[in-house]
Amino acid sequence: MINLLLNILSVGAIISGILVITSKNPVISVLFLISVFLHTCGYLVLLGVGFIGISYLIVYVGAIAILFLFVVIMLNLQLQELSIVGKEYTQNLPLSLILGSVFLYEFTEILPFSFKDQSSFNITIIKEIIINFSLGVFNFINTKIISVIDFITKFTNKDYNNQNFITSQETINFNYINNNNTIYVAFNNMQVDENLENFIEIQSIAQIIYTNGIVWLILCSIILLLAIIAPITLTLNKQNKLYY
């Protein structure tokens, strides 16, 4: 029963997403956009990710989609204007299909592998190269940190707790890392899921965000700050300033 509901919600979200970009009336497009968010929210709730699903409902439907709907209603677009735009859109449709077909053909020709035979493009080799390079950089930084700590302890005669660092004799063996392991698993003996299995959903999300993902959280906050400052700067009327 749950699988049937998941399939219905996923198909409904896909159909609503298609109707968002094909509807001529912008008000109807925004309503279908709200439908996409509602289907996505129900899908996530049935998967057991209730907090993120409710967040989708509150943030997107409760704020962004309603704001879009309010702006579209304030524009007061006439039906005649929408029909003219629709006719112009259908006139350019054959040209867009031709250009899209040419783009897909060129895209498939320049790919280094074929979709039918992927033997020439081995993804596991690239994964091993990336993992080995990342671990090599980590070992280099680790040895430098240990050398600095040893240099400090010689002059201060204080005992520092070095248990958070890997000693130079404990450098990571590259052959130990297989394709199924990640860099986090290589550096930690305990899996992430084992650490978070006793937490509720909100606690597990907070544990990940405020420990391993703190740098990305700060980066996202800076991006949001720039998104607030940029429109204010662009809409600032500099001609009405008074110069004394």
TrEMBL record:
Gene3D superfamilies: NADH-ubiquinone/plastoquinone oxidoreductase chain 6, subunit NuoJ. It is an enzyme of class 7 (translocase). The chain crosses the membrane at residues 6-23, 30-51, 57-77, 89-108, 120-141, 214-234. It comes from the Eukaryota. Signal peptide: none annotated. GO terms for molecular function: NADH dehydrogenase (ubiquinone) activity. Its main location: mitochondrion. It is found in: Mitochondrion membrane. It catalyses: a ubiquinone + NADH + 5 H(+)(in) = a ubiquinol + NAD(+) + 4 H(+)(out). It is a multi-pass membrane protein. Keywords: Electron transport, Membrane, Mitochondrion, NAD, Respiratory chain, Translocase, Transmembrane, Transmembrane helix, Transport, Ubiquinone. Its EC number is 7.1.1.2. It holds the Pfam family Oxidored_q3. One of its GO terms (cellular component) is mitochondrial membrane. PANTHER family: NADH-UBIQUINONE OXIDOREDUCTASE CHAIN 6. Core subunit of the mitochondrial membrane respiratory chain NADH dehydrogenase (Complex I) which catalyzes electron transfer from NADH through the respiratory chain, using ubiquinone as an electron acceptor. Essential for the catalytic activity and assembly of complex I. Belongs to the complex I subunit 6 family. This is NADH-ubiquinone oxidoreductase chain 6.
